[in-house]
Amino acid sequence: MKNLINSLHGDKVIWALVAFLAVFSFMPVFSASSNLAYMRHGTGNTLTYLIKHAVHIIIGFFIIYKIHKVPYHYFRGVSRIALPFVWLLLGYTLVKGTVIDGANASRWIQIPFLGISFQTSTFAAIVLYVYVARYLSKTRETPLTFKNSLVDLWLPVFITLGLIFPANFSTAALLFAMVLMIAFIGKYPLQYIGLILALAVAAASFFVLLVIAFPKAFPNRVDTWKSRIENFTSDKPGEDDYQIEKAKIAIASGNVYGLGPGKSVQKNFLPQSSSDFIYAIIVEEYGLMGGLTILFFYMLLLFRFVIASHKANTLFGKLVVIGLGFPIVFQALINMAVAVELLPVTGQTLPLISSGGSSVWMTCIALGIILSVTKKEEEIAQEEADKQRREEALQRLIDKQLLEEEEAERAGNQGQNEDDNPMNAVLNR
C-alpha cells in the first residue's frame, strides 16, 4: 500500500478528495439502488448494483492513474486530432441515440459487444476544453484577431455545441459557459466575448423558433427539455414535478442528522434516486450535516483546482486545470440545485458519487489530466530542490578546498619565516 501511495504523483489533496467522494458513493448508491432492483428484478437485491458501481470506480481510478503518468502537453495535439472524431461521434449519437428503460435518450449510444451505454457529450466536452486551452495559449505567440479566432476557435466550438444542443440542452449550456470562462481567464478580448455571446443567443433563439414551427422535425429529446423549462416556469404538473416533489420530501425528512444510512423512504419513489437525484437521498439519510459536508468537499476540490491552476508553469496548464476542473464542481452544484428546485431538471449527475459508467470514467479522464499538470509542477519543484542541493554540495566542496589551500599556504609561510629567523641559525650551531 505504501508503494502504491508513493507511486501517486501530483496534488495529494486532490487525490485524497477524489478518493473520499468515491468511497463515500458506495453507501448512497447501495441504498438508492433498491428502487431499480425492485423495478427490474422484483427482488430488491442491490448487491449487483453495488458490485457494478465498484467496478466502475476501480476502472475509473485505473484511468486516473494511467493518464496522470502522461505529460500533459501531449494532450495539446491530441485535442486537435480528436475533435473531428468527436463530431462524427456526436452526429451518430444524434441520429442513432439509444433507448434506456423505454425512454428516449438520444444523448447516449450503445457500445457494440460490451453492452455499455456511453454519453458522447461528456467526452466531447473534455476534448473541446483542452482544444480551447490550446488555442488561447498559442495566441500569446501570435497577434489575435476576431476574424482568425472566429474560424480557428469559435467555429469548432459552435459545431460541437450544435451537435449536442438538440439532444442535451443543459450540457450544451454548461459547456458553452465553461468555454466563455476559459476564454475570459485566457484574456480573450471582452468585446469579442460579447459578440460571441450575442451570436450564440441568436442561434439558440433561431433553433427554438424552428422547434416551435416544426415540432416533428427534431428528435424527441427536444420535447423533453422544452417541457422541462415550461414546467419549471409554470404550475402545470408533470413527471419532473413528481420527481422534484419527492426530492424535496426526502430533503425535508432528513432534518439535521438524517434518518440513517439505508433508511431512506423516498428512494422507493424517485425514478433516478441513484443518479440524478442521489443528493436528495444523501440528505434524507445523512441529514443537513451530511449534505453540507458533501458540499464542503466539492468546494475544497474547487479551491485545490484554483491553487493547481495558479501553480501551473504554463498558460496551457493553467487553462486546462480550469477548463477540466471547474465543470466537475459546477456540475455538482447544478445537481444539488435541481434537487431543491433552484433549477429545472437537467439530467446532470453528481460527479464521483452518482452511479454510472461512462460519466464516472469521463470525470476520471479529466482528473487524470489535471493531476498530470500538478505532477509537472511537482517534478519542476523536485528538480529545483535537487539543483539547490547540488549547488550547496558543490559550494561546500569549494569552501573545503579553499580552506585546505589556505591552511597549506599558512603552514608554508610559517615554515619560511622560521628559516629566515637569524636566531634559528645561531641555535642550530
Automatic annotation (TrEMBL):
Region described as Disordered: 406-429
EC number: 2.4.99.28
Entries under InterPro entries matching the protein: FtsW/RodA (IPR001182)
Entry superkingdom: Bacteria
Catalytic activity as recorded in UniProt: [GlcNAc-(1->4)-Mur2Ac(oyl-L-Ala-gamma-D-Glu-L-Lys-D-Ala-D-Ala)](n)-di-trans,octa-cis-undecaprenyl diphosphate + beta-D-GlcNAc-(1->4)-Mur2Ac(oyl-L-Ala-gamma-D-Glu-L-Lys-D-Ala-D-Ala)-di-trans,octa-cis-undecaprenyl diphosphate = [GlcNAc-(1->4)-Mur2Ac(oyl-L-Ala-gamma-D-Glu-L-Lys-D-Ala-D-Ala)](n+1)-di-trans,octa-cis-undecaprenyl diphosphate + di-trans,octa-cis-undecaprenyl diphosphate + H(+)
GO terms for cellular component: cell division site; plasma membrane
Chief location category: membrane
Record's subcellular location: Membrane
Membrane-crossing segments per the record: 13-38, 50-68, 80-99, 111-133, 153-185, 192-214, 286-307, 319-340, 352-373
Keywords linked to the UniProt accession: Cell cycle, Cell division, Cell shape, Glycosyltransferase, Membrane, Peptidoglycan synthesis, Transferase, Transmembrane, Transmembrane helix
One Pfam family of this chain: FTSW_RODA_SPOVE
GO molecular function, one term: peptidoglycan glycosyltransferase activity
Protein's UniProt keywords contain Cell division: yes
Membrane topology: Multi-pass membrane protein
A GO biological-process term: regulation of cell shape
Similarity comment: family membership: Belongs to the SEDS family. FtsW subfamily.
Identification of the protein by name: Probable peptidoglycan glycosyltransferase FtsW
Species the sequence originates in: Flavobacterium fontis
Taxonomic lineage: Bacteria, Pseudomonadati, Bacteroidota, Flavobacteriia, Flavobacteriales
